[in-house]
Specification:
By secondary structure, this protein is an alpha/beta fold. It has a single domain, classed as 3-Layer(aba) Sandwich (Rossmann fold), CATH 3.40.50. Helices cover 41% and strands 19% of the residues. The protein has eleven helices and eight strands. It has helices at 44-49, 74-88, 100-112, 143-155, 157-169, 183-194, 198-210, 214-218, 241-247, 263-266, 268-280, and strands at 2-9, 12-21, 26-30, 53-57, 93-98, 117-123, 224-229, 251-256. Helix 4 (143-155) crosses helix 5 and helix 5 (157-169) crosses helix 6. The longest helix is centred in the first third of the chain and has 15 residues, at 74-88.
């Protein structure tokens, strides 16, 4: 099992687990909350078949990476990614961030620049700023809802994750598509999520909601693909993907009709075609 030390806590190493397969121009996959590298099982084979080197890792607190008490802020998560890219000496890489993983990719580029990165793909992405305040009425998540999520994660984490997995495949009522909820895949998402650190899950969720990434997005200069489901009930496209694409100068927005948050699973073939076209563009 490949691991790299990115930090220390109480004199003990904080290691993150990663997978590194294939050769060619690298593609770095950054999973979303509260999942792990297992979420990419429908993408990795196609990327390898197309001749890419594929690097996927478990963020701290998730999967089989270390689960420290701290370090779940955007800057530290971006620094973890930076240390991984440095460790593997990746160049001309494409970062692919899903959901909250998009936030890590965006903060990485704004903080460390594009010396090692040539392209970016943001999928079902969180951001630019999810929190609704008097100064930011465009946000769609109020503090009361965030506190409810925190309470549910504390009181009965597994039940909350089961409901999250349902929404992962659920489509908005306004969509003409039928709800997509294959039970085996639903169970798979719950299993991936259940491996997450309790503290890491709560802190990462809070950071994703309360951090303003608008300035980070304006700093991005690499060609960027934004893919979002029109029927996403977790992160509605008008409040997230559409605004992200507006903020990034060199971007292309793909709105998948009838697709839920978990489009990398339910619409894997369609998404993979868009991603491969972006990589070859």
């Amino acid at each position: 099992m490949a691991r790299v030390t990115v930090d220390k806590e109480n004199h003990l190493p904080v290691d993150i687990h990663y997978e590194d397969r294939g050769s060619g121009r690298p593609v770095v996959l950054i999973h979303g909350w509260p999942l792990s590298v297992g979420q990419w099982e429908f993408q990795i084979p196609d990327l390898l078949a197309a001749g890419h080197r594929v690097v996927a890792y478990d963020c701290r607190g998730f999967g089989v990476s270390a689960k420290p008490r701290g370090g779940y802020d955007p800057d530290t998560l971006a620094a973890d990614l930076h240390m991984l890219l440095e460790h593997l000496d990746l160049r001309e890489a494409t970062l692919v961030g899903f959901s909250s993983g998009a936030c890590t990719a965006v903060r990485y580029l704004s903080r460390f620049g594009n010396q090692r990165v040539s392209r970016l793909a943001l999928v079902s992405a969180a951001g630019p700023y999810l929190r609704r305040t008097d100064a930011h009425p465009e946000g769609f998540l109020e503090d009361t809802k965030l506190r409810e999520y925190q309470r549910c994660l504390t009181d009965d984490r597994v039940s909350f994750l089961h409901r999250f997995a349902t929404k992962f495949f659920e489509v908005a009522r306004s969509s003409a598509a039928r709800p997509v909820m294959p039970q085996p895949l639903h169970t798979r998402v719950v299993m991936l999520a259940a491996a997450a650190s309790h503290r890491g899950a709560i802190q990462t969720l809070v950071q994703a909601v309360t951090t303003d990434y608008r300035n980070d997005l304006r700093a991005i200069t690499v060609p960027t693909l934004v893919v979002h489901g029109e029927a996403d009930v977790v992160l509605p496209v008008e409040a997230t993907g559409a605004r992200i694409a507006e903020a990034v100068a060199d971007s292309r927005l793909v709105r998948m009709q009838g697709a839920p948050h978990g489009l990398i699973v339910t619409r894997a073939a369609e998404f993979n075609r868009e991603l491969l076209a972006h990589l070859e563009g």
